[in-house]
Amino acid sequence: MNTDPWTTGRRPENGTGPHEDLHEDLPEGLPEGLPEGLPEGLPEGLPEGLPEGLPEDLYESLYGGPADAPSNGPEGGPEGDGVIRPYGDTTDDGMVQLSFTLPLPHGPRAEGAALQLARRMGMERPLVVHSKAVGGTDFSFFVVYGAVAHTVDLDRVVVAERDYPLLSAKEADAAVRDRLGRRLVVLGACIGTDAHTVGIDAILNIKGFAGEKGLEYYRQMRVLNLGAQVPVGELVRRAGAERADAVLVSQAVTQRDAHLTNVRELSAELRASFAEHERPLLVVGGPRFDPAAAATLGADRIFGRGTTPGDVASYLVHALVPAAPVVPAAVLEDVG
After folding, report:
1. Distance of CA 265 to CAs 25, 194, 245, 259, Å?
2. How far is CA 220 from CA 176, 223, 248, 277, 299, in A?
3. Residue 29 has what pLDDT?
4. CA dihedral sign of residues 206, 207, 212, 214
5. Is residue 207 among the annotated active site residues?
6. What is the rounded distance in angstroms from the CA atom of residue 292 to the CA atom of residue 324?
7. What is the pLDDT at residue 60?
8. Run of H or E residues at 202
9. At a CB cut-off of 8 Å and minimum separation 6, what does 266 contact?
10. Per-residue model confidence as pLDDT tens digits over 94-128
11. Which of 62, 72, 76, 214 has the fewest CB atoms within 10 Å, i.e. is most exposed?
12. How far apart are CA 311 and CA 309, in angstroms?
């Protein structure tokens, strides 16, 4: 499976690592299978199942689930269909690849620090499979490969799922025309210092994305793309002047959580400038947003990676266009 050149130093399928000397920096008395920094009193080695007698919060931190979570079977595979482990070289081997940067000059000491960090994070038999200097000589980038004991309980996975039907461009136009009676007004922009317009252009421009036409293609939508680095105050002013139904914001710059700060500021200004029943819908998109965090940011909807114009258009129709009236079955029979 792993053909990436970064993982050429990975552990072979027989489970023995080619670099036994990588464990020389482990503290004395600590079993080889345990990472540094784990609490005292753990049983010897990492068990295949969940050990007894550990505090419940320790189960959560070590194994990614509560004390009564299903354990691994004797062969390392899950006992139930809802529990899985990462896959690297062989099924259920728990192998993962982790990348990070440390503020250290590139060299043996930095690689030792990377291995220590990996062990403290719970990774067994970690190997540095790639490292290089970045930003001159003061920082080092690493890719570390190793096994983790944690499992994933699929029954506890929570995701924000689409709660509306996907519509074609013709279906969306027909719904707006027949049930709203006017065109939807949609404003789009990158706010703050963000100059990355690829995302907003993919959704709005007629060329579109992933084989779908952008919102400019829809006959029943009036689209205004304001471009990059639009101040929040200016966007709110234009939303009022254009009587916008929806404001679409794309954020790619995430340093110091600027994307979160900008969205919270925009949400606050929209709510301060409009009565609740007149406030435009706030739709946010970008690769670093959590779609489940819309309420905490004050947005109506958040779209993440892979969003297409059809996704956004269908949501706008769902949120802004009155639902089609339900005709009773008895009426349909009389008409028939």
Report:
1. 48, 14, 19, 10
2. 6, 10, 17, 22, 24
3. 47
4. negative
5. yes
6. 28
7. 46
8. helix 198-204
9. 191, 232, 235, 236, 247, 249, 282
10. 999 999 999 999 999 999 999 999 999 999 999 99
11. 76
12. 5
Handedness of CA 146, 60, 112, 21 (dihedral sign): negative
CA 16, 19, 20, 24 dihedral sign is negative
Q: What is the pTM of this model?
A: 0.63
**Given a cut of 90, is residue 18 above it in pLDDT?**
no
Length of the chain, in residues: 336
> How does pLDDT run across 181-230, given as a tens digit for each residue?
999 999 999 998 888 899 999 999 999 988 899 999 999 999 999 999 99
Q: Rounded mean pLDDT of 54-67? A: 44
Helices (H), 21-73: 56-63
Averaged confidence pLDDT in the chain: 79
Which position among 132, 170, 207, 213 bears the catalytic label?
Answer: 207
Nearest Cα neighbor of 125 from 14, 23, 3 is 23
Dihedral (CA of 136, 137, 138, 144) sign: positive
In contact, 104 and 27? CB cutoff 8 Å:
no
